[in-house]
Each structure stands twice: as structure tokens, then as C-alpha cells.
Amino acid sequence: MNICVFGASSSIIHSSYIEQIEELGREIVKRGHGLVYGAGASGLMGAAARGAYELGGHIIGVVPDFFEAEDMGVDGRIFQNCTELIKTDSMRERKRIMEDMSDAFIIAPGGIGTFEEFFEVFTLKQLERHNKAIVILNINGYYNPMLELLAASVEQGFLRKACLQLIKTCDNMYDAFDYIENYVPQEIDVFEVKNIEKG
């Protein structure tokens, strides 16, 4: 299967994140999967690609044209060893292609772009636009504040508890792979996971 990894492009994050995501890239290949990601060479994006490339994995990078055209700097460099490099006209098209080409999603630690990517695939699953596995890889407890926000949304009636069953949180990559590789899609009832009444 193709596993999409969303994650940071920042080159100044702690090395413990980099090391774990490089190992994630290697493990994707060891398990016979392909990597789909945002084509970056730095941060956790670059780490996943380096790990996969080290073991000869299939890497699909998807990047908007303007990343090159506008010289995005250190954090915008493109990984030069992608098996396939797909260029798009926009960030929106980039996300659509990554979503369409992937069989599962791993949300590694990241910033605003990663948050957007996570909430898009989460929302689309809630709306029955796909039924693929979504895993939050909660390295070093990075996503604890976001998980607390989601729990607060449930407590205050902005989100149904059933909606949280559409995602899985794992503290390590081995649990993440176990979930993804044994994932059995369940029927999603949009009325059960959204705060709306039928008919």
C-alpha cells in the first residue's frame, strides 16, 4: 500500500523527531509499502524520504510549482531522489493528489501545514469521502494539546464522541503500522459522527 506521511518541513526541530521519522521511512519500505509525501528535503518530510530512499523504497513526492519558482529557501528544498515527483498548480491540488494516491495517513509532528492536512483528511472521512486509516503519531507527546482540544470539543457538544473513533493515536510507529496493516474500514454514518439530526 501507499502510506502518506504528513509532517514538518522545519529544519530546526529536535533531532529526536528527525531520527524517529527517518526510521519510520525505513520501516515503510521494510514492510513493503510506498511513501507518499510533500516532496520536501528538510524537516520530518526530508527525514521520511531519506529513510525510505536508504532502503530503495518507492517515493512519491508531490509539490506545487511555486515552491521552486519562488525560491522557498532551506525549508522549501525538494528532495532530489523521489521515484516520482508530481508538480501541481496549487496547494489544494497537491493535497488532493496525495489523498487520492494514498491508502493510509500517518500524521507526524508538524506545524500549520500539517495541521491543515490532518484536519482535511479527518473532515473528509467524517463526511464519508474516504474510509482510510488515519494515525496521529504522537511522538514525545507532541499532539497532546490538540487531543485535549478535540476532547474539549466533545465535552462542549461541538463534536460527537463517535467522530474520534475515525482516527487512531499511537505513541510509536510500530503501533501505528499494526493499526494500518490490520485496519478494517467500518461503515461511517455521517449523522452519527456529526451533530446533525436525520431528516
Number of DSSP strand runs: 7
Mean pLDDT: 92
Anisotropy-based shape: globular
Low-confidence stretches: 72-76
Largest sheet: 7 strands, parallel
Helix/strand-derived category reads alpha/beta
Q: SSE string, helix = H, strand = E? A: EHEHEHEHEHEHEHH
Provide an overview of this structure.
The protein has eight helices and seven strands, in the order E-H-E-H-E-H-E-H-E-H-E-H-E-H-H. By secondary structure, it is an alpha/beta fold. The termini are far apart. It has a seven-stranded parallel β-sheet with strand order 4-3-2-1-5-6-7, with helices on both faces. It is 42% helix and 16% strand.
List keywords for this structure.
199 residues, seven-stranded parallel beta sheet, alpha/beta, 42% helix, 7 strands
Can I get a quick summary?
The chain is an alpha/beta fold and 199 residues long. It contains eight helices and seven strands. Helices cover 42% and strands 16% of the residues.
